[in-house]
Amino acid sequence: MTAPLLALLDGTLADVTHPLIRADDLGVVRGDGVFDAALARRGPDGEGIVRDRDAHLDRLARSAAILQLPEPDRAGFGRAMDALLAAWDFDAQPEAVIRLVLTRGPESGGDPTAFALMAPISVGVLRERAEGVSITLLGRGHDGDEVASMPWLLPGAKSLSYSINMAAKRHAAQRGFDDVVFVSPAGQLLEGPTSTLVVDRGGRLLTPPQDGILASLTLEHLMAAAPGAGIEVAFERLEPADLLSSDGAWLLSSGRLVAAVTSVDGTELPRSPLDTELRRILEV
Amino acid sequence: MTAPLLALLDGTLADVTHPLIRADDLGVVRGDGVFDAALARRGPDGEGIVRDRDAHLDRLARSAAILQLPEPDRAGFGRAMDALLAAWDFDAQPEAVIRLVLTRGPESGGDPTAFALMAPISVGVLRERAEGVSITLLGRGHDGDEVASMPWLLPGAKSLSYSINMAAKRHAAQRGFDDVVFVSPAGQLLEGPTSTLVVDRGGRLLTPPQDGILASLTLEHLMAAAPGAGIEVAFERLEPADLLSSDGAWLLSSGRLVAAVTSVDGTELPRSPLDTELRRILEV
User: Fold this and answer.
1) Could B22 and A18 be called an inter-chain contact, meaning their C-beta atoms sit closer than 8 Å?
2) How many domains does chain A have?
3) Same domain membership, residue A166 and residue A33
4) Do A99 and B165 touch (CB under 8 A)?
5) Between chains, do B4 and A171 touch, taking CB under 8 Å as contact?
6) From B151's CA, which of A72, A93, A95, A210 has a CA 20 to 30 Å away?
7) How large is the ipTM?
């Protein structure tokens, strides 16, 4: 993997291979911070743009509020994104992910640490977008409903404490699966480690209620645009059997956008008749 | 808070105020790494020592294995600890915590990041050791038993993804409590965000089974030494009512060692008749 571009909140680029962060930064020693990730590509006029830019800045601010971090410097993150977009070679890499990161700063006191990274969408991710993903269902150990009512469990925040999400993806990969959907102890489908599940049940698109799971901006985009295309999208409790007997399913995320679920623990899923239309909606 | 001392695995000290870590280190952007924390003080011959040094290095290695990180450089962490101990002013600060940190390294590839930090035990922590702590019980959203059987949830690992633990402590502090004990959805007492619960029930010391919670080295120390003092220590499932009707309780941790629980959500607990003996055992 090539090293990402790095920008600071004053709008300057920095060499990512040079250390930026103190050893005692709470983002390191406690995973105590937040991030957000957005897709960057060429806009209609050829300039680089960040998809749903304001919505990502809004979500970063919501995540920071949940962790009781200072409000993110919105103008500063804007300058950092502009610097990255200006430096990016969209001819060589037409799509990239920009990550905004904010930590609580050094444990012994000091300002929060903030920066933005930009890396190309990998060939593997583009292949998953085109060809779909095999998934495995893994227990998440907690119910979304219960977590939603316990703010100290940080429901709905994109915190930097993602080691379990990464471990679940490794676990799946080692067993030959591309991705994961988490299941609650009560048998409800929740979300992927870095994605949101959408299921086609008889032409209706259904997605798990966002209790204790992350509010997906790609889903928000879909929900806003789908009715105009005559497609209903609704929150509904889903169990594995609903997925296995569905007319197709997808994982949504900001970078990969959409990946069809080709199989669930080895059982093949059909490609939904709505696949083309859903992609058309999300690509706008 | 004063800035900690920082040592690298080659045995040199470094200035902690200078950046050490890349912005794209997985320890930062994913909380993807492990740590361990040990108490440092003067040994019998006046030299600085790390309490249960080998046990902490062993647990760091177990945590790394659970996260499928490379095996920690044991000799290197030993050199780092020696450098910290040699540089520490034990006259000015008789007790300190040494933290060993290992991350997966830069996302785009490269070696793991490893270092050790040493900071004084704060006056507040020393006061808690002497005077005890008020606690509040907070839901953890998951059962230890269930998590224990799901390796992708990283049971038993001290990962760097501690944002929930930190949030629970903030939540408690804002409501006037010193610390937290987590409770499972089934109503079982689990552990503190950075400590282990021990309860005196009629002269027997009981602690929750270590399923899906962290194996405490201070507890291990107690379990090894208590029988010689005629005290039984056993794993047993405990509910809030068992704590509230107990003859006393403590939170154990490597730095604070032991803090008596003075109250649970406002209900006072007695000081256990075994308090002095337990401290004598743990202080050795």
Assistant:
1) yes
2) 2
3) no
4) no
5) no
6) A210
7) 0.95
Domain harbouring B47, CATH code = 3.30.470.10
Q: Are residues A110 and A216 in the same domain?
A: no
Residue A166, min C-alpha distance to chain B (Å):
8
Print the domain residue range for B86.
5-121
Residue in B closest to A35 by C-alpha:
B29
Confidence grade of residue A256 (pLDDT, cut at 50, 70, 90) = very high
* Average pLDDT across chain B, whole number: 95
Same domain (yes/no): B79, B161: no
CB within 8 Å of B250: residues ≥ 6 apart: B197, B198, B258, B259, B260, B261, B272, B275, B278
Question: Which of A163, A171, A175, A179 to probe by mutation at the B interface, max B CB count within 10 Å?
Answer: A163
For the four alpha carbons of A108, A110, A112 and A115, in that order, the dihedral sign comes to negative
The yes-or-no verdict on residue A247 having pLDDT over 80 is yes
Asked whether residue B106 falls in the same domain as residue B148, the answer is no
For residues A146 and A234, state if they share a domain: yes
**What residues in B contact A101, CB-CB < 8 Å?**
23, 28-29
pLDDT of residue B60: 97
CB distance A3–B108 less than 8 Å?
yes
**Same-domain check for residues B68 and B106:** yes
Q: For the segment A180-198, what is each residue's pLDDT rounded down to a tens digit?
A: 999 999 999 999 999 999 9
Which residue among B1, B6, B115 sits closest to A109, beta carbon to beta carbon?
Answer: B1
Residues of A in contact with B165 (CB under 8 A): 30
**Pair A103, A34 in one domain:** yes
Tell me the count of A-B CB pairs closer than 8 A. 214
Per-residue pLDDT tens over the stretch B128-144? 999 999 999 999 988 88
